[in-house]
Specification:
The protein is mostly helical. It has helices at residues 15-36, 38-44, 56-68, 70-83, 86-106, 110-138, 144-168, 171-191, 196-201, 205-215, 221-236, 240-247, 250-267, 271-284, 294-316, 319-345, 355-372, 375-383, 389-417, 420-441, 450-459. The protein contains 21 helices and no strands.
């Protein structure tokens, strides 16, 4: 935390912090567009409206290579933030996203989309690691939560916008429109000051002082500079090998294993097949009461509302209970979806079943956003000390990338091996295990300061 004034100050003095938060929100909005892109356009490849020929296996790889890109993205995110700073890393991330949209515009075969979607996968991990570090460096304590919440909601809004745009415009027009917010956030980040923490780590003290005063004109500059110097001196003295050794300390190793297991549950709950193939699943479910493209829009719209509600519930109800409730809700949604396809295969009239996949998709999105989506990230920010938080985030993201790739890549192969209903029931069973794991093994840190959490972890 940079700014420690003894009394609150008017928000109008923090306009540059809000601009930084807004730029981060636009970045996550663009990342959301890359995720929302998948559902409408992958569905098009199985229709007469296909932009160009693509086999079932090729469509599966277009979907899964996005997840494969997340693994190197975790490594690049760590390297960029550790050595170039979060602002520079996010500018580079924006340039990569611009390249991906240009490739989509020029695409005339699946090879172009392979490269574009791989870059998008890299971008989501770099963005996920970078923006919390940047906002943590530049924001005041009284608006930090609001800035982070605003940024995360940009991701959900981007997914929803991608679903809506994809239903009505061509793939190339989608990419042209998406270039506008991508260029916008890059330009904003170029113009705003670098983080004072990064400038201090490079011994640019005059620039660091200017940065502090620009982000907070009422800051006590001598106190803030001294605080940042002490923090930078402590962390810069720690080598990468030292960080690995500290991560291997029993309390950190246990915390890391807990977060990784939560990532596994979050990625194998059905998220990636649902997010990638939602429109296709609804079409296979013989839903005719509404246009299939409407269901992702409705589900993700309500998911945004659920995400906003989670901002209150995470602290009011607690991490452990929300994880259990979320797992149970997703279990119910996957059970219902599997039952729908089982009844279809049994010959029941699809007209009497149409409400089941629609309600299942909505229930899944709401319940996922109210626990499984954010609890791993919350615990990641709480359980680890400052020296290893970036490393822990990178390791967690790397495992999440492997899980996500495996989940979405295996989905198409499972469809060929077993009945679709059994796939969703497998996800439901895994969510039962997730609820049990959460009930007994997810640590509850509600209401504790970071120091109290570290003291608690040390005692254990």
């Amino acid at each position: 935390m940079i700014f420690r004034l003894t009394s609150p100050f008017p928000n109008d003095t923090l306009w540059l912090q809000w601009i930084g938060g807004f730029a981060a929100m636009i970045m996550m909005f663009v990342v959301g567009l890359t995720i929302g892109w998948a559902s409408p356009y992958l569905a098009q490849f199985s229709t007469e409206d296909s932009p160009f020929p693509a086999s079932v296996d090729e469509v599966s790889w277009i979907a899964s290579i996005f997840q494969l890109g997340r693994l190197p993205g975790a490594a690049l995110g760590f390297i960029g933030n550790q050595y170039l700073g979060s602002k520079t890393t996010m500018i580079g991330n924006g340039c990569g996203l611009m390249m991906s949209w240009i490739l989509v515009i020029a695409a005339n075969s699946v090879a172009w989309l392979y490269v574009a979607r791989f870059i998008c996968g890299v971008a989501i991990e770099v963005a996920s690691i970078s923006f919390p570090l940047y906002l943590g460096d530049i924001s005041s304590s009284n608006i930090r939560g609001a800035l982070i919440a605003m940024t995360l909601n940009g991701l959900s809004l981007g997914i929803l916008t991608g679903n809506i745009m994809g239903a009505y415009i061509s793939m190339r027009i989608f990419a042209c429109i998406s270039l506008v917010p991508t260029i916008s956030f890059v330009l904003i980040f170029i113009l705003i000051p670098q983080s004072p923490y990064y400038l201090t780590s490079k011994s640019k003290m005059q620039d660091a002082e200017k940065s502090i005063l620009k982000y907070n004109p009422k800051a006590n500059i001598s106190v803030e500079v001294e605080t940042i110097k002490q923090f930078v001196a402590t962390t810069s003295a720690v080598t990468f090998i030292d960080r690995l050794r500290e991560f291997n300390i029993p309390r950190n190793r246990k915390a890391g294993l807990t977060v990784i297991i939560l990532d596994l549950f979050a990625q194998f709950c059905g998220l990636n097949p649902i997010a990638t193939y939602m429109e296709t699943i609804v079409t296979r479910g013989m839903v005719t009461v509404v246009t299939p493209s409407i269901v992702p829009i409705l589900a993700n719209g309500l998911g945004i509302v659920a995400g906003l509600l989670m901002m209150y519930l995470a602290d009011a109800v607690g991490r452990r209970r929300m994880w259990v409730y979320s797992s149970c809700g997703v279990c119910l949604a996957m059970t219902a979806l599997g039952t729908h396809f089982y009844l279809l295969n049994d010959g029941l009239d699809p007209k009497h079943l149409q409400w089941i996949p629609i309600i299942s998709m909505i229930l899944f999105t709401i319940c996922f956003n109210m626990g499984l989506n954010c609890i791993p990230a919350i615990l990641l920010s709480e359980l680890f000390g400052a020296n290893i938080r970036t490393l822990a985030a990178s390791i967690s993201c790397a495992f999440a990338a492997v899980f996500a790739f495996t989940s979405v890549n295996s989905y198409q192969y499972l469809l060929e091996l077993i009945d679709e209903s059994y796939i969703y029931w497998m996800y439901a069973i895994l969510m039962v295990v997730s609820a049990i794991f959460g009930l007994f093994l997810v640590p509850e840190m509600k209401g504790k300061t970071l120091k109290e959490i570290q003291d608690f972890m040390t005692e254990k």
